[in-house]
Amino acid sequence: SVDCSFTRGVCDWKQDADDDFDWNPADRDRGDGYYMAVPAFVGHKNDIGRLKLLLTDLKPKSSYCLIFSYRLAGEKVGKLRVFLANKKTAPVWEENKGKDEKWRTGKIEIFQGAETTNSVTFESERGKGKTGEIGVDNVILISGLCPED
């Protein structure tokens, strides 16, 4: 498995230069490192911020599982979407409200055909809310299918 977490991960993360705002590091509650977050008050409603994970060396015709922690805290905080580079048009994963402030786990199957996926983009869309944040942490890529819970 490949650790793409932000504190000591080995992956290549890039801020999108053509979006409306950047994701920023935020300290974890327990004080052991940080996660990437977009506070609710950044930008204007429907503004977009994208954080891209560049993937190299994924083998064609094989499966991978991207596992990550996410949190949508606050009322009307916005949307979190995940896009795969070879399927640009529609998100492969989307969440638009948190039931509470808790961290949850997201999983995405990445099936490689002859064309390999060379990036995964985490996109935050600003909502109407003024408090809370959208956060992403503990991004891990494993080969094979996603495990059952």
Automatic annotation (TrEMBL):
One of its GO terms (cellular component) is membrane. InterPro entries: ConA-like_dom_sf, MAM_dom, MAM_domain-containing. Residues 2-148 form the MAM domain. SMART domains: MAM (SM00137). It comes from the Eukaryota. This is EGFL6 protein. The gene is Egfl6_1.
